[in-house]
From TrEMBL:
Family matches, as SUPFAM superfamilies: Radical SAM enzymes (SSF102114)
Secreted as UniProt keyword: no
Domain Radical SAM core: residue ranges: 11-221
Keyword set, alphabetical order: 4Fe-4S, Iron, Iron-sulfur, Metal-binding, S-adenosyl-L-methionine
Native source organism of the sequence: Anoxybacillus mongoliensis
Single annotated GO MF: 4 iron, 4 sulfur cluster binding
Necessary cofactors: [4Fe-4S] cluster
PANTHER family from the UniProt entry: RADICAL SAM DOMAIN PROTEIN (PTHR11228), TUNGSTEN-CONTAINING ALDEHYDE FERREDOXIN OXIDOREDUCTASE COFACTOR MODIFYING PROTEIN (PTHR11228:SF34)
Listed name of the protein: Radical SAM protein
Amino acid sequence: MHKHAHEVDYNENPFIVIWEVTRACQLKCVHCRADAQPLPDPRELTYEEGLRLIDEIYEMNNPMLVFTGGDCMMREDLFNLAEYAIKKGMRVSITPSATPNVTKEKMKKAKEIGLTRWAFSLDGPTADIHDRFRGTPGSFDLTIENIRYLNELHMPLQVNTVISRYNYNHLEQMAKLVGDLNAVMWYIFLLVPTGRGQMNDCITPAEHEEVFRWLYELSKTAPYDIKTTAAQHYRRVVIQQKMREKQIEAGDIRYEHAMTTDRASIIDGLKRAPKGVNDGNGFVFVSHTGDVMPSGLLPIVCGNVREQPLARIYRESEVMKQLRQPDLYKGKCGICEFRYVCGGSRARAYAVTGDYMESEPFCVYVPLGMRKEKNRTVFA
């Protein structure tokens, strides 16, 4: 018997599992976490190992399962694996790259087996911006063509966008395009400088804040849901904006335990996980060779599913356990009154400082505790 989502205990089970079914990919995206390669790795999990992994994931309170890559379409048994999971009653989505591997036949097959959502990446409102980011001419046109066909099939579309220097000044156009393409979800990623992603491709902390405020306003009128990754502080911005609008009282979230994350999902209305998901905290990543990490953007190997069950690694790894304790975060994140709903991107903290427990380096917010301390120092 599986619990309802609002009863999820992230110490026990994740809300979402990402399985990188292959590293193979024909694109050369500038931000690629995976440093994808043209051919499949011979050490990839086999079909039988994949089925066993799906069984293990299902037993962890049946979280959402996302097949990713590289390009998951480069894996020949992808639909067999997906169908196996769907028949067990799992919610499965895929994030293929926009390459000639995505055919009308494959989209039809995906619909037939019951995939809940198909995610395509669009990183700019024009071919010029998107193709430069993706490192592949023609990628934009191919993606739009694929999306149009997906619409004809009436399959739910999710558009994934990495916000970076490349497209920061074109977000209004992007938002309109996502609506025009009939997406049900706009999934925003804030660039983490790992893999091919570079520090100077990131937007500044102040620009992060501007983007979050803009997204919040957009969320009131957009015909699609907005979800964020590596942007945990968006939850804080949403709550602050709702406080300014007097939709919630400041007392609701003034101090730590008054703001458990279950309460946050009621407040922010973001139609997502009932508790804030963070690297290793409601979120877990399995690599093409079975390595288990807190997320693909926080590449610390905590175990391997060939050697230990996924549940044991997720529940017992010291790294994972640390990540689930916001009180242990360092710097301002550790004393921030929003640490239970936000917690900052642990992946970005790691990428910038080398310490996954450090403060989110791209957050401008000064916690109440630090402001009080500063005032005491001024008046002492």
